[in-house]
Amino acid sequence: MPTLAEITAVFDAAYPPATAEPWDAVGLVCGDPAAEVGRVLFAVDPVDAVIDEALEWGADLLVTHHPLLLKAVNGVPATNFKGRTVHRLISAGCALLTAHTNADVARPGVSDALALALGLTVAGPILPLRGEADGLRGLGRFGTLPEPEPLGAFAERVAASLPRTSAGVRVSGDLDRPVRTVAVCGGAGDDRELLAAVRAAGADAYVTADLRHHPAAEAMEAARFGGGPALVDVAHFASEWPWLPVAAALLAGGTVETRVSTLVTDPWTAHLL
Amino acid sequence: MPTLAEITAVFDAAYPPATAEPWDAVGLVCGDPAAEVGRVLFAVDPVDAVIDEALEWGADLLVTHHPLLLKAVNGVPATNFKGRTVHRLISAGCALLTAHTNADVARPGVSDALALALGLTVAGPILPLRGEADGLRGLGRFGTLPEPEPLGAFAERVAASLPRTSAGVRVSGDLDRPVRTVAVCGGAGDDRELLAAVRAAGADAYVTADLRHHPAAEAMEAARFGGGPALVDVAHFASEWPWLPVAAALLAGGTVETRVSTLVTDPWTAHLL
Amino acid sequence: MPTLAEITAVFDAAYPPATAEPWDAVGLVCGDPAAEVGRVLFAVDPVDAVIDEALEWGADLLVTHHPLLLKAVNGVPATNFKGRTVHRLISAGCALLTAHTNADVARPGVSDALALALGLTVAGPILPLRGEADGLRGLGRFGTLPEPEPLGAFAERVAASLPRTSAGVRVSGDLDRPVRTVAVCGGAGDDRELLAAVRAAGADAYVTADLRHHPAAEAMEAARFGGGPALVDVAHFASEWPWLPVAAALLAGGTVETRVSTLVTDPWTAHLL
Amino acid sequence: MPTLAEITAVFDAAYPPATAEPWDAVGLVCGDPAAEVGRVLFAVDPVDAVIDEALEWGADLLVTHHPLLLKAVNGVPATNFKGRTVHRLISAGCALLTAHTNADVARPGVSDALALALGLTVAGPILPLRGEADGLRGLGRFGTLPEPEPLGAFAERVAASLPRTSAGVRVSGDLDRPVRTVAVCGGAGDDRELLAAVRAAGADAYVTADLRHHPAAEAMEAARFGGGPALVDVAHFASEWPWLPVAAALLAGGTVETRVSTLVTDPWTAHLL
Amino acid sequence: MPTLAEITAVFDAAYPPATAEPWDAVGLVCGDPAAEVGRVLFAVDPVDAVIDEALEWGADLLVTHHPLLLKAVNGVPATNFKGRTVHRLISAGCALLTAHTNADVARPGVSDALALALGLTVAGPILPLRGEADGLRGLGRFGTLPEPEPLGAFAERVAASLPRTSAGVRVSGDLDRPVRTVAVCGGAGDDRELLAAVRAAGADAYVTADLRHHPAAEAMEAARFGGGPALVDVAHFASEWPWLPVAAALLAGGTVETRVSTLVTDPWTAHLL
Amino acid sequence: MPTLAEITAVFDAAYPPATAEPWDAVGLVCGDPAAEVGRVLFAVDPVDAVIDEALEWGADLLVTHHPLLLKAVNGVPATNFKGRTVHRLISAGCALLTAHTNADVARPGVSDALALALGLTVAGPILPLRGEADGLRGLGRFGTLPEPEPLGAFAERVAASLPRTSAGVRVSGDLDRPVRTVAVCGGAGDDRELLAAVRAAGADAYVTADLRHHPAAEAMEAARFGGGPALVDVAHFASEWPWLPVAAALLAGGTVETRVSTLVTDPWTAHLL
Question: A222: pLDDT confidence band, cut at 50, 70 and 90?
Fold first, then answer.
């Protein structure tokens, strides 16, 4: 069986930690690099239900997209759910590895998987990594549909292509508007710089998550004044889940058993109109 | 007819500008203090459709909750929608006044109106203003329902009490959980400090808007570990609209004609499950 | 008639906004890019008397050297003279365009016009723009008189060459000292870096405005210790006025009517010895 | 004969160093506290000509208003005029003491002496020291003339009351405007906060030094819009010189010989209209 | 048996976490608050040899003075000695609790124990906690010997009273100088503010650890010029060890078994002259 | 006789001031560049006893490694030992020149002299200067012994090779461990970056000064976990003294008389075990 250090090296090669955002926290959260790894579980969030699944299945390693300890800590006592998670994992001998913004900007990365799920042919990143001449890696992706389709049909495609969540899909724009070029960004994508780049590129629609009132309303007013994309807002979890099987495939062909969690970790459990 | 300066003084007394957050931009955006004011329109957002309504109706003053120029500018040329809005208003002789976080923390303020709409008896703010001994003013409100009811019924009450929007209401928590004490915060309420205070107070549910994945998911994990509120997420616009008639009532009994806009300025225009 | 956008493009080409200092505020302050422009007035300061002149003459555009809104604002209500100026201009359909430090560093720019007025042959900037290989653009100018002349005669030349102001011209240095190489800087020029560069270059005299006690006194002490220029202090307005006809000439040959304001906007209206 | 430490204590009592601005550098620049002091010279600026006067007269101490080393240094080599000044003073056994913003805010202080020279009865400071209940100390002074007089006559009074300098006195405002209440500030007084406080207090005129174009022009525009003081700009040196005999009087009655330098250290040596 | 939460409460009462320095990291590093605690080991440093001792003895809790994770972390993988320590402790069910600067400033605290070991009667802290009226708590302690003794004898007393370490005790000052009043500070004490306070108080000697060349040399030069304490530098470990039995005594009388480690964790293992 | 400016130029060429750390203060502290220099004394610290030696010998220049005025000052009054030192030097006509971190990083520099004294063949710097392609200059040095020897023997070599001080040499590590490659850093060397580079390079031992408990203890724990150097801590003074004759040799062959002070300026005057 490979060691944890060997498995970690595979992910570090695919998602180099140095490409993560400066504020991010990627890499090993716990685990002994010399330990042997036979079973690896993949999930979006290191929440309690996912830890249950990992420990019940006997995973030696849990790989998640979201960091458990994004805010740095001076201790991991079991006085809160984060410390308890660390205690549960260490006591059970299960390591935890995070690939977050390093997986976002990689090629292929989180937004490539999202674009693929929607049937888009990817052209390149929305915000290329600084200092890279070829401009292949970066945040978000631009892509093209094989055929133009009305925004209404495109939104149905989005809803049908991603894991179903309680809150569904929100749309802003004229449902008859034709959509051909699309920008996608897995996870929260209402950053001012992202929205400006999507608009500058002339995309017909932008699919992302966690769009708040002010960025979304400003984008729609700007679009009314001088053009801009329709917006399609999906669950944060749903936008990133398509990456899990891609990450798991990195271990294919070896002796390690992998499993992709299908637990829905979107926090919303009910929805009313 | 009163002058704009006299009308402004009424709002400054009810919503003192000095109580606004340091990053906020409240007060007059345009208008001549000596101009006479006969008609005042109230709306949540100074978007183009609202400006249309104001100018078509012949408003002398538009009062909005959201600032047009939150980010300070060195000019207002009509090269973007914000500058064009200023040109349209000045050319038509219509002033624009913002009452934002000063209206949030006032008593009664934006969250009082939201609590009232939901049938809550208000106890006090979630985060009292610093340096105020009586603790009456501040961000958000705690309140109590006359009778406990299951979370499912409470969520239906929320949906039925606020302006209907495309995206509806999202809920996180056990729908059978009884709800009696409720925290509400008009507008975006996923700030770490707000969530911590709501949890510390032991509220059964928290109604607010713009809840993103990470704060919501962390709150639900923390609740699973050591208790905490159910979450009810509504449209940002819908959470603040109930304040408009309250603000309009400040001018009641005078010679000024008032009108509350019923345009839905939530950016989401369609929703799919 | 050309549009405002077309006229703005002419000035942006001559005085690229990207070359302005980071703290500066250049470009359009108000105006609709689609409006037609028939008459353009040029002035140093956007003060009330200049606005009167613009509106009485029927100007469609006022071009000034000094910004109206150097300090960014969150609104332009007519509760102060700056907001009133914006209201007067928008109501009258007159745009306002600022070319400030971008006009200072351009070639030809504000200090070239000042040097020309004094009869100097320009060699190059005092502080070249960073990152420009040819060193042609930048702040201030070094120049040479055709013949050396005593400082006293040179000061009389300065007084006679620029618009007359109440406060006149101040001189520091031995009036018999010969002057051949001269540094000039339109506007306030007592910045430590400018003074150091003038001294390092061995100029015989430095003509600028707004020289305060401490920089001037330190420069004269340093000159006594190890050599340095005589100082000639003129009115800020007078040092920049010569640029106005140069800027107006950018529109020559077109259909636009131009006019250079001769109002003296130096604040000093009387002088006593 | 008293020691330098004893003389220093007299000035520290009258002008407590703790009341100086945080950016200022007051107190001893050089000198041995145990040295005996027989002769003390007072001057505004520690320039070379003043050092000559001190050493020729045999001064043991030079007291100046302006600091020699406002910018802190890591050495005092005689490679520039400041280090040479320190070498000259130490070699000759002459100490140097600065009383700058601590003398400005004291009561009586620099602006009291200026007000007295102009015949004003002092009311209080323009900007009281923070945290002082009685509000007696602070920057600048408000005062009253015995009788109102036109601005023109007042300006002549200013010119006649202060040491004559080459550049004279500059005035902004209607010369027939009556002047009764006057604000004065010795030294550079075009700080935004000072100008705002003078305007808020409704003073008829403001006498200070080093007024630059932008603050002066903005003040006059604001005055045109909503009232404000006339401006009277004098030489920085002239505005502070009246304090010298007041400071010298602190040593009266002792055994120390004092002398007030009458060298004009204003940098401007000629003036042309 | 008490729970870890109950034991933690005892230490939090004696050494309130809120009194720790802002940069410090005190409290639980790992451990489950619901776990039962039968054995508690006390040590200065959480080094590997101390972990060995804790685990071999079967400790349920290790209390150390120095934090394991002073620099906050985003994970505790066993890829370095700190993460391995966390894994060892969690796997063995042993909690780790730090009382650092909160134990320093407490009364009695770390420097009280050091003073006691040296036979001093304590007067009060060197740097009292800000905002405490009684001035009883704070960093370091002043104390008095029953009888004055020469510095040489005092240094021998210090060496004899503290745990012996390889590098011994360093002394700066005249060995015949009488010592009566003494300042002590457990741990690194060459902070500029501490040294200034010790000097201002007129102490005869200052006992602390980790004194570097520049602070020590400057203090001795200052002492030569105007008086100041002799310096006695001991091993950091030795200066803090006397506090361990005091901390252990907080659990006396209960059912918990305590043990004070006598491992020398000073890093120096040999010394040459 | 050469002038001070000529002598200064020799040191500036060998130790360019621009290579000093940004926080450092190198170059002339006092002295007249035109003065003639006949005698130059070299010492580590500008303490009072060294000034005595300089003045008694009639030195015209004192060159020290440590700055007198590292913290910038606004005056040099003789109210403290630093100002008194400046007065003594200027009155006696003796200049003071500092070569500190510029001498540390030079080639040959302070750590080269230390390495030479220990019999090491130097390979290169521990931390090369940024932006230098050849990597020859920088902080600290790596070197090699002609033959491996046990750590105990190496420590004896260190003690025998450097000036003897009261406190001697401290060692951390197994005395039988073989030592071949050695890192040295004159002066305080417990900076995190230095220690990490020494460890990464795989050196057998690290000789430096002012090693405090936490860096030293962490280094030894890290070494126990994954390898790392033994530590040898010497007096700060002793580690830098070997550079003095090297610096003096820069003036060899000229008319200037040089002398290297043998005063021990280590602050520790006694030591007890």
Answer: very high
φ, ψ (nearest 5 deg) of residue C103: -80, -25
* B77·C25 Cβ contact <8 A: no
- Residue F179 half-sphere exposure toward CB, CA atoms < 13 A: 29
> How far apart are alpha carbons D8 and D60 in whole angstroms?
12
Q: According to the 3-state scheme, what is the secondary structure of chain F?
A: CCEHHHHHHHHHHHCCHHHCCCCCCCEEEECCCCCECCEEEEECCCCHHHHHHHHHHCCCEEEECCCCCCCCECCCCCCCHHHHHHHHHHHHCCEEEECCHHHHHCCCCHHHHHHHHCCCEEEECCEECCCCCCCCCEECEEEEEEEEEEHHHHHHHHHHHCCCCCCCEEEECCCCCEEEEEEEEEEECCCHHHHHHHHHCCCCEEEEECCCHHHHHHHHHHHHHHCCCEEEEECHHHHHCCHHHHHHHHHCCCCCEEEECCCCCCCCCEEEC
Instruction: Report the distance separating Cα A126 and Cα A144, nearest Å.
Output: 13
Task: Answer yes or no: do A271 and B171 touch at CB < 8 A.
Answer: yes
Which residues, listed in sequence order, are joined to residue B205 by a DSSP beta bridge?
A: B182, B230
Q: Tell me the ipTM for this assembly.
A: 0.96
Of the candidates F152, F173, F225, the beta carbon closest to that of E84 is on F225
Q: Name residues whose C-beta falls within 8 Å of residue C212's C-beta, 6 or more positions apart in sequence.
A: C190, D188, D210, D212, D236
Contact E231 F84 (CB under 8 A): no
Q: CB under 8 Å to A11, separation ≥6 — which residues?
A: A63, A97, A99, A247, A250
Q: What is the DSSP letter of E79?
A: T
Residue with tokens 């650092």: E100
End-to-end CA distance of chain C: 52
Q: Given its phi and psi angles, is residue B240 left (phi above 0), alpha (psi -120 to 50 degrees) or beta? A: alpha
Report d(CA C47, CA A67) in Å as an integer.
57
Q: Which of B213, B222, B235 lies nearest to residue A210, judging by beta carbons?
A: B213
Neighbours of A193 (CB within 10 A): 10
CA distance F87 to B194: 61
Residue in the structure block whose two tokens are 């007291």: D63
Q: How far is C116 from chain D (nearest CA, A)?
A: 21
- F235: closest CA among F158, F139, F153, F152? F158
Structure tokens at D250: 């602190």
Distance separating alpha carbons of residues D181 and D203, to the nearest angstrom = 5
In tens digits, chain B (273 residues) has pLDDT values of 999 999 999 999 999 999 999 999 999 999 999 999 999 999 999 999 999 999 999 999 999 999 999 999 999 999 999 999 999 999 999 999 999 999 999 999 999 999 999 999 999 999 999 888 788 999 999 999 999 999 999 999 999 999 999 989 999 999 999 999 999 999 999 999 999 999 999 999 999 999 999 999 999 999 999 999 999 999 999 999 999 999 999 999 989 999 999 999 999 999 998
- The pair of structure tokens assigned to A74 is 């001076």
| Neighbours, chain E (3 or more CB pairs < 8 A) | A, F
Contact C270 D235 (CB under 8 A): no
Structural tokens at position E101? 């600067």
Residue F192, phi-psi category: left (phi > 0), alpha (psi -120 to 50), beta (remainder): alpha
